[in-house]
Every structure is written in C-alpha cells, then in structure tokens.
Specification:
This protein is of the alpha/beta class. The chain contains 13 helices and 22 strands. It has an 8-stranded parallel barrel with strand order 2-3-6-11-12-13-14-15, surrounded by 4 helices. Strands 1-16-17-18-22-20 form a 6-stranded antiparallel beta sheet, with helices on one face. A two-stranded antiparallel sheet has the order 4-5. β16 and β17 form a beta hairpin. The chain starts with a helix and ends with a strand. Keywords: Calcium, Carbohydrate metabolism, Glycosidase, Hydrolase, Metal-binding. InterPro entries: A-amylase_thermo, Alpha-amylase_C_pro, Alpha_amylase, GH, GH13_cat_dom, Glyco_hydro_b. GO terms for molecular function: alpha-amylase activity; calcium ion binding.
C-alpha cells in the first residue's frame, strides 16, 4: 500500500522541480529583457537635496529639514470662499500640514485689489493694505484682515513652515483716471490716493512713458508697471520700508511666488532677490525647457517646471510613459525647478496620483495643490508620498526602464540615505519587472504598502519588483 504514496510523492517532486525550472527560466528571460534597457543617468551632481534657504525662526522644531528636501502646499485655489475667512481656514490646517511634512505654504496675493472683498488679489491696487483700510469697497480682503494674516504667518512659523507671498508686480488695477501726455488720452494710472499712502503712482510709472513704449509684456489691458523707473524700483525692492522688505521684515514672509514673469525682464526678479532675499519662484508659463532655464538663470530664481507638467500630462493621460524620458527643468537644474500637478490656473492631468507619485519621488521642489489634498484625492496616500519624499527621495536620478505603460526610476541616495526605486504602472493589470538597485543581498519593501512582497536583491543588485494596475510602488531598504 506504500507504493502509490511513493509514486505520488515522486510525481509531486518532479512537478515542483519542473515548475521551479520553468519559473527560473522565465525570471532569467525577464531579467535579460530588462537588461536590454540602457539605464539613463538623468542628473549628475553631488546629491544634495533642494534647499529653500535658511530656516524660519521656529521655536518648536516640529518640522526640520529632511533628507529629501521640502514640500510646498499651494494654500488656495481660484475663487476660494469670499467673506474674509480664508486666512483663518488656512491657519486651522497648518498644524496638521506640518505634522504631515509640509515645509512651506504659498498664499494668494495678500494686499487689497480693485475688486476689494471679491478679488483673488491678482489686480493689485495698494500693496500695503492687507485688509486694514477701507478702500475698493471693503476693509478686509477676500481672505481676511491684516491681523488674521499675521496670526496665520505666526502659526505657520510655530510649526516651522515657511510662508511664501504671491507677488503681482507686472500690472496694477484700481487707479483713478488721469490725463496722460504719453498716450494723449485718459488712463487709469492715478494711484496717488492709495489709503496706505505708500508707493503712490501716476502715468509716468506705467508704460508707455518717458522710459519707453513697452516692456516684455502686458496683461489683460491693466496698467503695465514700468520697472525701469527708479521710483518703482525704490518702492518695490530698494527701500527699507518698500514692498519687498516690508513683506519680509515686518509681515515675516519667507519667500516669493512671482506672478506672470513673462511680462517683464528676468533682471527684475534678480534685483529683488539680491536686495530683499528669501526663496523665490517665477511663473513663466512655457513648456520650452530652454526658455525656463534661461529665465531661471537670469532671474537667479527657481521656476515652475511647466515642461515637466506638460510631459506628465502627455505621459499619464496619453498612456506613453516613455515621454517621461524627455527633457524637463528639474533634469537641467533640480535646484531651480518647482514641480506641480495642478494649480489655480490649470488642471489638465487626469491620473493625478500617478503624477504625484512622480514629482514626490523625483528631484526638484514638489508642490501639492490645496484641493487635491483637502478635497479631491486620498489624503492618506498623499501623506504617505510626502513621507517617502522627505525620508527616502535622496540623491541623483537614474531611469531604469520605460515603455508605454511602465516607468521605473531610481534615486541613488545621499549622505548615508539609501534612496529609492519608484515603479509606475499605467496599465490595467499587475506588472512585474527586474531592475538594478543600489543594494546587494539586501531585503527591500514597498513603502506605499501597495505590494506585500519583501524581495531580497541578488549579489549583482538586481531584483524583481511588482506594481499594481493604474498605480505605483516605491521600494527601499527594509529598515
């Protein structure tokens, strides 16, 4: 009666052996296929993370500089609720944001604009009215009072979160009509009656005037501020009580987001930065990476990486992840590139979580959009990506594999931090791929929890990892 049992055991052993051989052969073939992809070493530098300059004067130390650099929150969206409560709304969130690893917040234009309590601030009238003067139909701005703004900034600094002001200096709005000898008409360029009494302006402070007919660009028919005029320079960045230094030293802003920098020469932001200081990023809305690099270098400023934005849109929504191999600002200079998935002006990318998994594992300074975080996406998943960015996204970048629906990249680590491997899968099925890590004979895991594998890398640093459909996995040393 024992012979059938022996025969069954023998057949089972043979089947297991044959399956193992077949599986090993398949793995060898899959590894060989991956080895055909020539690794692209995207960046070449010493590996230091993105820096936003000196820390805020925090006494609590809840947020400290981390291995991966910072993450910015765009703390508004277009047409946030009117009624003067937005500063209080944001203040109520900064503790949670700080605990999640957010290192800075970008606020909307804070000063009084032409539409008063209804304006989003991009039509500025009085740069020194933060909601404490009764002009343009209201005392408070759409977002609140000066007292509430100061309270918000103070609360953010308590969490060691930096606060960036949105600066609109291409154009003004809300002036009174005056005769203009340069146009032979009346123009809305009389800002002599601004309630603060600071930075009064008239027709000679706007194009066309004695300094020329125009600069690089105008916006929406608004009076176009003339930065060549010494009076304008004085009040914007030179005077100790001018806009830049007042915002920094009195209001305690830590940096600047410059609006519509296509409208004036990069020397303007360069001069502002040289005289005022603080972190700066410009909104140069252009997908041409050569233009972005030119502006960033001449402005001595970071720039929003619109080249990356449009490539992500084409890659994720067009199902061609190989487009992520293309040129972007963060690849040219990761220390001057601010990456983003959505902002208050543009919201085209559909596969947003894939896009966030990209910018929060790659180089540059990633920005999270308020509504994505607070309303539209899974906050837990975004918090997980923020943690991974802050703790694991270190060093230079190498692309390990890409095709239509798969993309694998490696951060090569810095200063003892091992870095990571990110695997993005835009297909409808689970995918597996052999890739070369920086780690030999080391157990790794997926820090997103999307995969339950705990593979060990081979002596040659190769390992097989997996990724869920329409998802991502992010791997590093299991420690």
């Amino acid at each position: 009666m024992k012979k059938p049992i022996v025969r069954l055991f023998f057949l089972t052993a043979i089947t297991t052996f044959l399956y193992s051989c077949t599986n090993d052969t398949n793995d060898a073939d899959a590894k060989a296929e991956s080895q055909q992809f020539k690794i692209i070493n995207v960046t070449n530098h010493d590996g230091k993370p993105f820096s936003t300059g000196p820390k805020s004067s925090s006494m609590t130390g809840k947020y400290v500089d981390n291995p991966g650099g910072g993450v910015m929150m765009q703390a508004f969206y277009w047409d946030v609720p009117a009624g003067g409560n937005w500063w209080n709304t944001v203040k109520g969130k900064v503790t949670a944001w700080g605990n999640a690893g957010i290192g800075s917040i970008w606020l909307p234009p804070a000063s009084k604009a032409q539409n008063g309590a209804f304006s989003m601030g991009y039509d500025p009238t009085d740069y020194f009215d933060f909601g404490d003067y009764n002009q343009n139909g209201s005392t408070e701005t759409r977002f609140g009072s000066k007292t509430e703004l100061v309270s918000l900034i103070t609360a953010a600094h308590t969490e060691n979160i930096k606060v960036y002001a949105d600066i609109v200096i291409n154009h003004n709005s809300g002036g009174q009509s005056e005769a203009n000898p340069y146009t032979g008409t009346n123009t809305w360029t009389n800002f002599s009656g601004v309630a603060s009494g600071k930075f009064t302006r008239n027709y000679n402070d706007f194009y066309k005037n004695s300094y020329g007919n125009n600069d690089e660009g105008s916006f929406g028919g608004f009076p176009d501020l003339c930065h060549a005029n010494p009076h304008v320079q004085d009040w914007l960045w030179l005077r100790a009580d001018g806009v830049g230094k007042y915002y920094k030293n009195t209001m305690k802003f830590d940096g600047w987001r410059f609006d519509y920098v296509k409208g004036f020469g990069p020397w303007v932001v360069n001069a502002w930065n040289a005289n005022v200081g603080g972190f700066s990023v410009g909104e140069y809305w252009d997908s041409n990476v050569n233009t972005l690099e030119w502006w960033a270098n001449n402005a001595n400023s970071s720039v929003f990486d619109f080249a990356c934005y449009y490539k992500m849109n084409d890659a994720f929504d067009g199902n061609n992840l190989a487009l992520l191999n293309d040129d972007m600002m963060w690849k040219r200079n990761p220390y001057k590139a601010v990456t983003f998935v959505t902002n208050h002006d543009t919201d085209e990318i559909w596969n947003k979580l894939l896009a966030y998994s990209y910018i929060l594992t790659h180089e540059g300074y990633p920005t999270i959009f308020y509504r994505d975080y607070e309303e539209w996406l899974d906050k837990n998943k975004l918090n997980n990506l923020i943690w991974i960015h802050n703790n694991k996204a270190t060093g230079t970048t190498s692309i390990l594999y890409s095709d239509n629906d798969e993309y694998v990249a490696r951060r090569n680590g810095y200063n003892g931090n091992p870095g990571l491997v990110v695997y993005i899968n835009n297909s409808d099925v689970w995918q597996e791929r052999w890739i070369q890590t920086n780690w030999a004979n080391t157990q790794i895991k997926d820090f997103t929890g999307n995969s339950t594998w705990y593979p060990t890398t081979q002596a040659d640093k190769w390992v097989k990892i997996q990724c869920p459909p329409k998802g991502y996995s992010i791997w590093s040393i299991n420690q």
